[in-house]
Design a protein that fits this description.
The protein is built from 10 helices and 9 strands. Helix 6 packs across helix 7 and helix 9 packs antiparallel against helix 10. By secondary structure, it is α/β, with parallel strands linked by helices. It is globular and about 55 Å long. The model has no long low-confidence stretch (mean pLDDT 98). The protein has 2 domains: 172 residues, HUPs (Rossmann fold, 3-Layer(aba) Sandwich); 95 residues, Pantoate-beta-alanine ligase, C-terminal domain (Pantoate--beta-alanine Ligase, Chain: A,domain 2, 2-Layer Sandwich). It starts with a strand and ends with a strand. The strands form 2 sheets. Strands 1-4-3-2-5-6 form a 6-stranded parallel β-sheet, with helices on both faces. A 3-stranded antiparallel β-sheet has the order 7-8-9, with helices on one face. Helix content is 38%, strand content 20%. It binds adenosine monophosphate. The site of adenosine monophosphate has 16 residues, from helix 2 and strand 5.
């Protein structure tokens, strides 16, 4: 596996692969890899001839006071995991390469960036779209794989690709969970033993909502309050939002009719955890 830090070297590698007629798959990550990331890599192997994993903790998507400085990092472990998956390139640029002196241009997410996580993390999705657009221009992939755990991010990237005419296929990969249902996340490392136990309430609450819908409940307000109630039974958990919304526009729904996205963010200790599920009436 090649480890590339320089933007120009990454571009040169991709240009050569493209000229040789090979299809490049990109998996963007912030590192501290887990099975969720690795399943995206395996999806990448299926959809491309070459797989590039980018590892970049993007300062532009963290607000002041968020966990940019303390975000878990372990480059050596990540490198070994990716080597084992037979990844072709690990692209790991320093922040100065991605945001050189004088940098001032950003990609602004539209209304999709204002719902859900956008409410409590203003500027977050602008940071995401900006860095993803940069990665697309540097790696020049034919296909890029994103996890549906970050469902809003997936929809925003899809929108950006359509709006800015990137010639890139975007694949959404299902959420990978621990045995007890907790969605895998690098931020789960923030949880101590008790908090880790408490974090099971996220998945439990999603399952409760799915059961309610199966039993015939359609009213969004009642489903949302049942979900909040389930989370709030856990004393260590604080609900940031629970939203039942349209899976494409992310606008709040009054009733489940067809497909609806149930998305939530919960704080437990130092961790801010997100999860979601699609409900079908
Ligand atoms: P991150 O390193 O957290 O920025 O995540 C990098 C990519 O991995 C994003 O597309 C995430 O949606 C995806 N991802 C993270 N956790 C999971 C998971 N548990 N299941 C599926 N995809 C995931």
């Amino acid at each position: 596996m090649k480890v590339i830090e320089k933007v120009s070297e990454m571009q040169k590698w991709s240009e050569a692969e493209r000229c040789a007629g090979r299809r490049i798959a990109l998996v963007p990550t912030m590192g501290f890899l887990h099975e969720g990331h690795l399943s995206l890599v395996r999806e990448g192997k299926k959809s491309g001839d070459r797989v590039v994993v980018s590892l970049f903790v993007n300062p532009a998507q963290f607000a002041p006071g968020e966990d940019y400085g303390s975000y878990p990092r372990d480059l050596e472990r990540d490198r070994l995991l990716l080597e084992r998956e037979r990844v072709d390139v690990l692209f790991h640029p320093p922040a100065e390469a991605m945001y050189p002196n004088g940098h001032q241009t950003h990609v602004e997410a539209g209304p999709l960036g204002r719902f859900l996580c956008g409410l409590s993390r203003p500027g977050h999705f602008r940071g995401v779209t900006t860095v993803v657009a940069k990665l697309f221009n540097i790696v020049r992939p034919h296909v890029a794989i994103f996890g549906l755990k970050d469902y809003q991010q997936f929809q925003i990237v899809r929108r950006m690709v359509a709006d800015l005419h990137f010639d890139i296929e975007i694949i959404g990969h299902p959420i990978v969970r621990e045995k007890d249902g907790l969605a895998m996340s690098s931020r789960n490392a923030y949880l101590d033993g008790r908090e880790r136990g408490a974090a099971r309430c996220l998945h439990r609450s999603l399952k409760k909502a799915a059961l309610l819908v199966r039993q015939g409940e359609r009213e969004a307000a009642r489903i949302v309050s049942a979900v909040k109630e389930e989370i709030e039974r856990e004393p260590l958990a604080r609900v940031e939002y629970v939203s039942l919304c349209d899976p494409c526009s992310l606008e709040e729904l009054e009733a489940v009719d067809g497909e609806a996205l149930l998305a939530l963010a919960v704080r437990i200790g130092k961790a801010r955890l997100i999860d979601n599920t699609l409900l079908k009436a």
